[in-house]
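Reviewers of the previous submission asked for a worked example of the structure-prediction workflow described in the proposal, so we include one complete record here. The input consisted solely of the amino acid sequence. No template or homolog information was supplied to the procedure at any stage.
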Amino acid sequence: MRPTGTPSVMVGRGAELRTLLDAFDDGRRGRPRAVLVRGEAGIGKTRLVQELLAQAAARRDEGLPLVVAIGQCVDLGPIGAPFGPIRRILRDLHGEVGTDALREAAGSPAAVTALAALVPGLASETPADDEQAGEFAEAIEVVLESLSATRHVVIVIEDLQWADAATFALLKTLASTLRGRHLTIVSTYRSDDIDRFHPLHPVLAELDRTPGLVRVDLEPLSFAEVAEQVSILTDDAVDTQAVERLAERSGGVPFLVEELVDLGDRGLPDTLRDLVLARYTRLTDPAQETVRAMAAGGMHVDHDVLAAVSTLDDRTLDRALREAIDARVVLAAGAGYSFRHALTREAVHGEMLPSERVRIHRAFAEYLQQNRPADSPDDVSAVAEHWLAARDLTAAFDATVRALRLSRASFAPATSVKLAERLTELWDQVPDAESRAGTTRQALHLEAAQAWHDLGDAQRALRSANEGLAVCGDDPLTRAALLRQRFVQLFNAEHRDQREDLEEAARLLEGIDTAQAQALMSRVMSNLAISEHGQEAADHARRAIELAEAAGDDAALAVALTIESWRISGDEDDQPAALAPLERAVALKLEPPLRAYAGSAHIDQLTSLGRFAEAAEVGERYYAEVVRAGIERGSGTSIALSLAFALLAAGRPEEALTYTTRARRLAGRAARAWVARVMANHLSWNDERDARAELLASERGGIAEVTTLKPQKRAWWRIEEADAALEFSVGRPSPEVEQRRREALAGVLAVVEGDAEPTPRRYAAVAASLLVASAPDEHEDERGRLLRALADWPDHELNRRWGDYARAALGDTGPADERVERWRAVVSELPESGLYAWHEQVARLRLAEALIADGERDEAARVLERILDEAPAQGVARVARWARELGAHARLLGGPDAAAASGVIATLTPRELQVLELVAEGLTNSEIGRRLFISPKTASVHVSAILAKVGAANRAEAAAIFAASSPSAS
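From that input alone, the workflow returned the following structure tokens.
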């Protein structure tokens, strides 16, 4: 077989290409998609993506510009330069849309400042002096989201197996949230490189749990496809036996098929490595030497760098490069040269002698260090890797110090932590490490622990804290900080309250009067206060505030004041007093993340006080601030969720849903579960049962995770379940409904009687009382337990209002006039009660029911009409449905004839109506008892009361009256 060159058409891969094109079309239609293409080396991942982009260009929509940006990951060692491929993507986007459009897409000055470090010319030449850079990852997301509103943005990230840690972290977020409208993200990686120790492995494990992620696995070519590839590559007739041998030796890997065809009549090599090196071994010595030098530099090497490290003169180097290009070992690319395939580069690098490897890597390090910008993350990271390969650990250490400084400036904690850890690994092998690093080893471990904490990895943060403590020595400040860090991470990772760490930290800091020590001691006191109750918590919270004030540290003071607010609210059950520390905290000069921390607590406290309009007003201001600061993803989720709940409580669902939708897209897996709870509660009250079930099913994994890891937060889930189980029915509920009610009541009663915070405890009491009221004859024991719990509540206005509501619901079995009086009192206070919109409408419904029982039908009709007018717009459509059903049964709604009817059926209670309906079906007292889960004696009492109220002489007459007065008979 005589080779003719690289095939111009792609062989096979029809199904895989269709999957990619479907994802592309989804993105074009406004359904963002992320795709992972995986397969072994040489299988054709890049060729498939090239075909996608070619066909995508042909499908471009004239009304929707297509913007393509490609980020090639480069093998710069196990750490790499932060956001290496993302930098290349940003520069492509900059070239496609221009400076003005990219600035506009960034949205805020903080985001522009963050991006400017990687996109030359993006920032204003005269930035504001106090302009701080936002989070880089957040800025990337905002740019993609904004650009994809009016363009179809296609992002390609090639060779993820070489990506840096910062890119891994960003990819997880991009794939899971897919913030954008017309957005398609395609990533490729070599599956045979990924074992359980590879840094991409945990990223893939997390991505596998991401709903909507599209996976494309590239398998080897079939025999027929190998034959087709061979026929394209050669001019000769295809020999079936030769193709069979070739297919067997290549394993159906297209790159290897091409290499085998290129051998022609030469004998087959003994190993795969020999096959990959076949083109290389046919080169002359100067060409081989040049290719080996290139291999030390990576997949791509610029010409000026290669010329500097090569021992050849310019003319000989040019001839060697021409020979390597003609042999299709390397390609001319931009200002330099690239290997045609990574397999070739890896095999050639393995051919280098140890002494040659050291010499060439040293030459690369020296040239890049002297001739490339000191602020280029790619070059600085490459220098560090070259020094390591050259076995010059001191030079590698110094280069890593420089890379760490750049990484910090690039807001890349995932890369910074890896660099800090490398310095600690090299520490004992380098002279004067402390002076070279400008810090101590224990301080680097502390920095790593804090970075892992910020990245949400408590286990690694704990490991870093322990490693720092092992080498700390007699440095009380750093040791105290590491002890505090270990306490925090043990609690986060294992839910262990290792109080002795905080106590030891406090002993170390006692008597040190520097501002730094006082601020750290304040944080320790805050940690102690939040894990305690009673006088100890109060004393530690007070001291935390005093120390922060003495240190002049606004950050520590804001944390202390926020925790003091939570303590007053939870321990003292005094929500009005708890507001003052938060108002002081948010007035401090704080960095945006800390202001968001205090701001979220401020919204929640206002909401708990029933000041919903004020909570919404400040919440919208805090949310705008995090967007402007470029930290919406990191800090916006909690603010958006708190704000959404305040808006729902105020009966403003359309505004609220914009924030719940936003929070769900911003949040990670665990945080999305909390968003789902708020949304599920709204869907229950808005009578969207199927949508609620679908939502909870989609977040089942995250919900299980958070309720297992944080059992103290289960109270709110039990409340959500209780609200969902509540039914107001004038007919007989199904056994399934009754079983759901009993289970929900048991769960929410445990919240009322347990050690829940005051806000969920109050809500739980009302939810439980309404469940009891929906079937009063079955829950006498629960009624008594609730009344006893209410009697123990501290006596203040907020508890009184919620308690009066619960008592009114628990008293719905009494005389009609007393029920009217109780519910009138509750409804009269609704504008100032601080009760949620759905509870307000249920109170009106209960008042209407009591009015009907008391014969005040005109007023009842007015109350029901008000519910029908207000509730749907407030997101409380379920109560509107109940109002329609009650009005229909009472013949108050539906027209003048119905409104004028005065049937005695309207005087019956809901339970009596249930019993009468079963009497009309011909059931005996025993059968009624079994159906309603009450005793036959109780059923008999109800029947006697019904006969007296409707004026019937016997059961048959009562059944006839029921049939005549039912809506279907009218």
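Residues 476-494 form the longest helix (19 residues). We consider this example representative of the routine output the project will generate in years two and three.
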